[in-house]
Amino acid sequence: MSSTTTKELTVGLLIVSDTAAADHATDRAIDTLTAVIAEANAQIHNNSYEWLIEERRIIPDDKDKIQEKIKDWCDNKALSLIVTTGGTGFAKRDVTPEAVSEMLDKTASGLVHGMLASSLKITPFAIMSRPVAGVRGDTVIVTLPGSPKGAKENLESIIKLLPHACIQAAGGDSRVIHSGGMKQLEKEAGVASSGGVHDHHSHLYESGGLASDDAAGMTSGCGHHHHAPTPRTQQDGELRSNDLTGDVTQRHRSSPYPMVSVKEAHKLVAQKIPASEVVKKKVDAGLVGYILAEDVRAKESVPAFRASIVDGYAVVHTDGVGIYPVVGVSHAAPGEMKPLEAGQIARITTGAPLPPGATAVVMVEDTRIAKATEDGTEELEIEILASGLTELENVREVGSDMKTGDLLLRKGAEITAVGGEIGLLASVGIVEIEVYKKPVVGVLSTGDEIVPHDRDEALKVGEVRDSNRPTLLAAINARGYEAVDLGIAKDQ
């Protein structure tokens, strides 16, 4: 897929949520997914393509509306990729997979498997999601869960491979695309095969990051590949000293310590690290990067009151069709409201609390002004045209998003800047939580041959500039941890 020019891959973000459709201010998915795509653009290899978000829409959990938007974006606007969030669970209103499946020309079970496999490493509840992926016309479509955190994790698990899918779906020549072989495709996507043990390493910058190194064969260099050094003979196992300060003739000819894998090394380090101190932190921007030391449950229900999801009129649903006096107005603002009696209605705005006594909301589109004030600025009587209203129609019930005591975040979860955790905690009135204190990391380079990287003098024979220490210090700081520069220690 390499190219001398940058190919724009257009994206549509479709948020499927009754709640967000009623009040766009409650949506966190658009910002979350936009950040994931921006990060993907920053890691693109050779600027061969670029994601460009052309459409962002929020719609309710309505099958017809979902299909209408997808049809427009695929058939008329020919977007490269459509990403939906929400409606993939088991609730009665969750219809996104059904809506999307009927629109697909081809299914992409591999993308679905990739997302589920990635999510199951994080939580067993990922099995409760019902993702769908496939192609319609020239457009790749992927459905993500409604949780901003889950949507972020799912999209991150496949985002590097989606350009390949989008280019093929749009008619790219498969022979040309695959001409460099699988390794070339992996290199361009910035991913690596998980099969087999690599006996080489690379210090080349690829896709915005350094290629990872195996435990064996770690040496300095740039842009080279070599086999891990392996002894050709076996020593007799004669016992010798492990003291590296002793005479050379008394040392082991081969290391008495077995080589361990990176995974095993991580495990050993984790076993030796003392338990982190638990501290209390305020719920604000300074919480980013901390790990929860407790399960967190909702202190309040959301919403805390019955709220309208449309502009219209609060009514007693059993009153039926007819002309009724408007006795009050309910705005999305705090304040006392006069109870509504049978035969009365009140004007109400989206997100506003339902007046006491009201049992449903009629959309303004289903009404007609029967009588107005003399100056024509206010309605006095409204004719209700819609029949068969049900109790709590067009109403968000108390706790419909979350109820008091619901589990919000589990112990061990990371508080991120874009995953929505801070907003979630704030929405239920949590002002302080227990987290693990961030570690302070010291970085020390050792070796007689190591010299500061910023030393002006030319290198002498045998000297090596210290590149590991500034690299590690930068990586630690980037993760939000305090890094202490311990300098260079000689072999003494």
Structural notes for this entry:
The chain has 492 residues and is an alpha/beta fold. The chain folds into four domains: 171 residues, MoaB/Mog-like domain (Molybdenum Cofactor Biosythetic Enzyme, Chain A, 3-Layer(aba) Sandwich), CATH 3.40.980.10; 60 residues, Molybdopterin biosynthesis moea protein, domain 2, CATH 3.90.105.10; 90 residues, Beta Complex (Molybdopterin biosynthesis moeA protein, domain 3); 51 residues, no CATH class. It contains twelve helices and 25 strands. Strands 2-1-3-6-5-4 form a six-stranded mixed β-sheet, sandwiched between helices. A hairpin with a 6-residue loop joins β17 and β18. α5 packs across α6. It starts with 6 loop residues before the first strand and ends with a strand. One of its GO terms (biological process) is Mo-molybdopterin cofactor biosynthetic process. It comes from Orbilia blumenaviensis.
